[in-house]
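fwd from M.: "can u put these together and see what the complex looks like"

so here's what she sent:
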Amino acid sequence: MTLDFSTLLPYTDVILEGLVTTLWLTVVTTVVGIALAVVVAYFRDSASDTARDGRPSLVGRLLGGYVEVIRNTPFIVQLFFLFFGLPALGISISAPVAALLAMILNLGAYTAEILRAGIDSTLKGQHEAARALGLSRLQSFRHVVLVPAFSRVYPSLISQCIIVMLGSAVVSQISVFDLTYAANFIQSRNFRGFEVYLVATAIYLLLAVGLRLLFEFVGRRLFAYRQGGSA
Amino acid sequence: MALVSVKDLHKSFGELEVLKGIDLEVETGEVVAIIGRSGSGKSTLLRCLNQLERHDWGTIHLAGQRLDGAAMSPGELSQNVGMVFQSFNLFPHKTVIENVMLAPVVVKQTSKAAARRIAEEVLDKVGMLEKVDAYPAQLSGGQQQRVAIARALAMNPKVLLCDEVTSALDPELVGEVLRVLEHLAAEGMTLILVTHEMKFARDVSHRVVFMHQGRIHESGDPQTLFSQPKTPELSQFIASVL
Amino acid sequence: MTDFTLWDIVRNLMLAGRWTVVLSLIAFTGGAIVGLVLTLARMGGLKPIRWLIRLYVDLFQGTPLLMQLFLAYFGAAVLGFDVSAWTAASVALTLFTSAFLCDIWRGCVEAVPSGQWQASRVLGLNYLQSMRHVILPQALRLAVPPTVGFSVQVIKGTALASVIGFVELTKAGTMLNNAAFAPFTIFALVALGYFILCYPLSRYARHLEKKLYGAGIR
């Protein structure tokens, strides 16, 4: 067995192009997906909806269905359904848009469920204090509940964003020119499949480590209030 | 006309009737201490006054205006009735001044600058002006409770409800919170307190209300009530806590 | 193009779905065995062994499953083996599963209060005896809900085996679509197939979790 990485060198720009696509898909998905999750979590949070006495609303139920469908089907099937299935209904979307949509819907569903655990563990006293101060349900969610809920589930949130970034390798299957597509492309030219995929895998690993470090850095800034302690 | 007027208030939790017809009037500037054993309904009464609990029957008026049911929005209610809790319930992710400014800005739509002035004023009143940028986790229990009082005062309520505000504090921190309340009473703030601090009830309040099994069993001025209880239940209660 | 009835599509998908189930079972069983060995080695082993296992877990958790499949497929060729998609998929999914289960189970063993270790050591039990009689029975109760939950990830993971040419539910879907061209129906049915396999497991995992934490065992 011999490994030869030198045949990869002419393809550096191909790898870079794929890397850039993977990066922007990840960044947009993280921002929009988390925003989606917040909206979903709000409508599914029936416990603090005193007007409804704890029963989920119709919107809450529908969103619950969305979360379950995403969580119980493979990403690749969701991707194929959006990319191949929707045009059959007359809604045609480009491959990158389908990829982005699938990734956002995916992260949104998982994060909504993660966030729900954080919201559910909000102490009753926090809700009561907000109500006594006259905050509406939405105001209370936004100003009182959300940030502590995020801080409680932040480690799971980091993991989920990394999972979705790694999962994005699958978008190569609808010909989105991401890092994996670049690897497939090179493999089809130089036939050094193992070397190419080893390099691509290493880049994904670095991305995962980098993403984690970035999230941890942001988290320390965002949730500085927790390092109270003394006094 | 009384500032707070409660008539025939009933409240049940499932089968258990916690309030069995409460009538209570509180005048402007009056300090009323509600005492009684746990389970006597005193906290529930207090929580009905700002509708954290919905009562089943009866009416509550504030300055002649109906307060219960859908008569007042939560926003209006919070500008009439403030509340301080046993467990402080400060918002952990907000600094002292952000805790105090939140409701004026979000509920009352006060400008940030005006809200900051109000916040500084009330924080000064509770002696917490030096700690405006601290987070709750950096404060002692007594300091947190003083901030919680300031947070309620920032909405400029007509009456302040205090639900066992010193019960969660270490003994050496109780004094600083009681002094703040005493100061507010001296300024003419209307206070309704559920308390276990009998000395405070006797020295500071104008009237003491003794609750027993969901009813107001006895009430009167503190000196007479504590020295000459009329009912055996109150005698027993006083003997058990003093 | 031949005409496909809905029943033709459903029947073909169900036939291919069997391979999704078989591959899931292989990956889960194999992954559980490897994962158990790794967990035990990690909890008791020497520092370099622990470090190596941690690296193993981090590598599998930090890289795409799709890449792991490609590497298994092409790596075997580099080593001189001509492996089928079957073998490559089974090996890659088994290793992937073992890494995640090792991580989940380590957390469960660590969640058993350290007082339990001390108590069993004081009673004179050695490492293996403490593990077997005291720690594992307690860790096992904690481990069941997340393990059932992870089985859903394994089933969904098998869908990626389609990419290296293994004909299971997803691959059957794409092949049928090439012939029948009814993408909306076909991929909706494929998704439904996975949902039928996964949803009961998700529900069961959540039920177990509620039961465990509802009973106040932490």
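replying to her w this: Residues 12 and 157 of chain C are 21 Å apart (CA to CA).
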